[in-house]
Amino acid sequence: MRIAVLCERMAGERRVALTPEAAQTLVSDGHSVVVESGAGVAAGMPDDAYLTVGATVAPDLAATVGDAGVVVSVNGPTDGATLGHLGAGHILVGLFDPFWLPDVAARVAATGATMLALDLVPRSTRAQAVDVLSSMATVEGFQSVLLAAGRLPKMLPMLMTAAGTVPPARVLVLGAGVAGLQAIATARRLGAVVEGFDIREEALEQIRSLGAKSIDPPPAPDGGVPDAVLIHEVLAPHVAEADIVIATAQIPGRQSPLLVTAAMVAGMRPGSVLVDLAVQRGGNCEVSIADSDVDHGGVTVLAPTNLASGSTVTASRMFATNITNLVRMLDNDGEAFVDPDDDVLAGMLVAAGGQVVHPVVRSLLEQRAEASVSDGKAGA
Description:
The protein is an alpha/beta fold. It is 36% helix and 19% strand.
């Protein structure tokens, strides 16, 4: 198969979808790897490193994409320049967030290319080998604690010194998914006293397994979610006592739950830090602004949207390993094939044959079209 690796075009993005080590593996498997010149430079992986392992370095976008093959990138390309080079012979792989941005799927479908969204990897044992979201969440959880610790005007561990005892910092982590659990583990390693919150009982057990204290959620209706007001009442005193709050709660394709109100931030001590990792879908904190530092009554609120780039080499290597595993799933005697009977590939398939084929994404597009017609009639 021909695998094309694109330069990332999103501002501030330093990761690369395929590292030289991963390229070497794929070349050894018998594939042809074509890397757009400069794709790995921001991650400390120059063109020569790819050439050394048998990959080809292409001088521009057109030569990289070629007439057919698997085209990979971290952030799925949506710019006209890239889409203009795609056709029915291409399989486009990347992070597209199609449940939140379904219009992207329509633009890719219009090219005739097949679109596999890494955001939609099923939650199954077999799919773990290609689970990019979990890989990147691991990096983000680690980086979130380092980011907060660097802005907090105190040290995290308890220290016994000649100047007396330095008490440990208190860290509260909201949401115990992959990023949240990594944040808990990292804060614990740095010596902080850590609490964690989630509405799922199994997640509370995972919090405790890492040595943190779990905060019990308020009661919920059968099979439902606790009332937001009750969640705020439970969390308010814990937020007020925390030196650092790491908010990681996200729901795929939906608005992130509001867990920390402006009033709760105002109740924190001056100098405290809150890091909101869910800001791209509205945020867990009411005062968060994407990629901005907010000073709210002396409390620093940070909302980074690409924290994984802070550990560029590690993030790129993890991403590349997932891509390598995905390429092997696509390999059908040297030809790229999206097997409709493969639950992992079928779950990721968003567009094919000029059509948006994922039922959820297609439904979202239809809803938007209907809303647009209704708005047009209302304005007439």
